[in-house]
Amino acid sequence: MNHFRPPTEDMQFILHQVLCAPEQWRALPVHSEVDADLMRQVLEEAGKFVGEVIAPLNREGDEIGAQFKAGVVTTPPGFRDAYQAFWQAGWPALSAAQDDGGQGLPTVLEAMLYEMLSAANHGWTMAPGLLHGAYECIKHHASDELKARFLNKVASGEWLATMCLTEPQAGSDLGLTRTKALPLPDGRYALSGTKIFISGGEHDLSDNIVHLVLARLPDSPPGPKGLSLFLVPKFYEDGSRSAVTCERIEEKMGLHGSPTCVMRFDEAAAWIVGDPGKGLNAMFVMMNAARLHVSLQGIGLLEAAWQKAHAYAQERRQMRAPGSSTRAGEADLIALHPAMQRILGSQRAWVDAGRVLAYRTALELDAVKHHPDASRREAASQWCGLVTPVLKAAWTDQAFSGASACLQVFGGHGYVREWGIEQHVRDARVAMIYEGTNEIQAIDLLLRKVLPDGARALTALLGELRASLSDCSDDPRAMKAIQEFERFVRDELLPGTQAPGAPADRAHWLADDFLRAMAMLLMAWAWARIGSEPAAKSARWTVAEQAFWRWVWPEFGLRLGLMRATLAQD
Ligand SMILES: Cc1cc2nc3c(=O)[nH]c(=O)nc-3n(C[C@H](O)[C@H](O)[C@H](O)COP(=O)(O)OP(=O)(O)OC[C@H]3O[C@@H](n4cnc5c(N)ncnc54)[C@H](O)[C@@H]3O)c2cc1C
Prior knowledge:
It contains 20 helices and nine strands. The protein has 570 residues and is α+β, with helices and mostly antiparallel strands. Among the domains are: 8-145, Butyryl-Coa Dehydrogenase, subunit A, domain 1 (Orthogonal Bundle); 159-282, Beta Barrel (Butyryl-CoA Dehydrogenase, subunit A, domain 2); 437-570, no CATH class. The strands form two sheets. Strands 3, 4, 5, 6, 7, 8 and 9 form a seven-stranded mixed beta sheet that branches. Strand 4 (180-183) and strand 5 (189-199) form a beta hairpin. The longest helix is centred in the last third of the chain and has 36 residues, at 374-409. It is globular, with a radius of gyration of 24 Å. Flavin-adenine dinucleotide is lined by residues 163-166, 171-172, 197-199, 252, 255, 260, 430, 433-434, 437, 439-440, 443.
């Protein structure tokens, strides 16, 4: 079985050539000194760490899994040492501010690191996956006193963090949260309740764990507006343990290396983070960062599955491929069979375009924070708001269906454990569910981001895509697609959902198809950008580009057709 090999050259090509990242950094005072060479060095080092330390732990992590005994969780062999080496080398703090003990490097570097980590070992990566979001949440919402206690430890990753939202009755609808927070005389709050499905709620990877918990103050209004955010560590500064315990860990389909915990809070003394009743606002900082991370999990897992299937297809021989012109003796490689070429080419098309979009989103996140021009900050914020749910939903769907297609390349050998491809299919499935299910992402996109402003932000985004194509691409297909989508939104979607008398639930029926159509459109743009690069004229890139236009892109027309059928219903 092959371990994952970090594809740092491909990643750099997208970042530097296709996205021209150094130009973008020059526009941000905080990153104006970041240059391509420094980024290259850091990424190569990150790739080495991931390939040599994290990837080899993946198989045992899956087979042995996290273990639970009397409230204590033990992670699989090697996980703790790898985590200690990870934070001590400064990897979690790559893009944390220098004032907080971080290295102040661009967010995109952290995104690329987590893509590689997820590909190499999804179970292990769940633990640090929430750290940066927790850091941002504490940095932007906690009091100075709380920051003094926790910010540096979380920024450096010395202490890991959790996001405690879900309860048995409160999943997608966090407004149903019941965990209570009662004021204590010392200004803190006593948290009581049960949270379920908490990734890394208890473990032995770090010496302390910082829990960020959504709970309800007395007399708070029902629903999401009554929620506040609290922080409670596993251990307080004096070494005493908080009243937060792990009741059990879940047995699950995949992700065995990550303990998914049921956590009990028995009047645990906690600090409030941000203002009362603004818990969801504070948590959204963490959730948005987490959603981009989950997209990167999808991209990474698909790359890992593709690597395995591609390597296998170069070795396995079955029947002569039709129309094969290769030397006799090689003509029976399954890599030459059209059906296998289609599977492999399509997954490459998804991974490469996914990288363009995810890295661009990470670059935009820095522009939102640091660009001196307010209109540029606004455009960047719109990009992140519109593109993040598309990335999260479409690329996690593809990680699962694409990993399953890659398993198909192995025939029966993929269904047995030997080659490790079945683990990717099992591990990938959950990414469609957590951090807001993919259905919730589609609703977020259409009902919260597109329709309320009459598609103003979307139209601006489409205009930006068009402008960037006329700069650098002569591929008319993407341009035509953007124009077609603009017309569809203006002439059919808006009247069909907003006109007086339009069925109130119509937009909900359309949401999934709308998100998929957006995914196709964004991929078309990404492939037009890649295709316009002279260095992408090699077989490495053209095979994937052709696969995109031939086998992936036609879904755009299908989705428009489905939406038209829905719009035509009474
Ligand atoms: C391995 C794992 C790790 C997790 N880690 C964490 C964690 O660290 N912290 C944490 O707080 N939670 C975590 N979760 C929980 C996860 O975020 C929830 O499972 C998820 O939000 C969905 O909630 P639910 O399972 O209750 O499903 P439900 O909300 O009951 O949804 C069931 C189905 O109904 C659909 N649905 C629900 N509402 C709507 C709607 N309005 N419109 C359309 N469809 C809808 C959903 O899309 C889904 O298909 C984790 C879950 C797993 C499995």
